[in-house]
Specification:
Shape: globular
Strand order of the largest sheet: 1-2-3-4
Number of strands: 4
Distance between the termini: 15 Å
Largest sheet: 4 strands, antiparallel
Order of helices and strands: HHEEEEHH
Helix content: 40-55%
Length: about 90
């Protein structure tokens, strides 16, 4: 199965579990990964760098919870596209 098909399949499984705000962010992550607009780099076992244009954000997973340092996640408390991109890329 291709990487793009795998991303779509994982996203399909998660979409029903999300609120409307998070659904749109998941969709933006899928589109960003497919187009190359979002690039995910593994930093270590619990951290990823997600490049989004000229900006790069750290996304961390502690085994229970995902967190991103972007303003969207920090100010709104919703899972952001960077977080979803890291999750889908892992």
């Amino acid at each position: 199965m291709s990487e793009i098909n795998m991303i779509d399949k994982i996203a399909e499984r998660w979409i029903a579990k999300l609120n409307d705000n998070e659904k749109s962010r998941l969709q933006r992550a899928v589109e960003g990964l497919k187009s190359g607009a979002l690039r995910v780099t593994l930093v270590n076992d619990t951290a990823y760098q997600v490049a989004n244009g000229e900006r790069t954000y750290m996304v961390r997973y502690d085994g229970d919870r995902w967190a991103c340092e972007c303003p969207d996640f920090l100010n709104r408390g919703f899972r952001c596209k960077h977080l979803f991109a890291a999750f889908l890329a892992q």
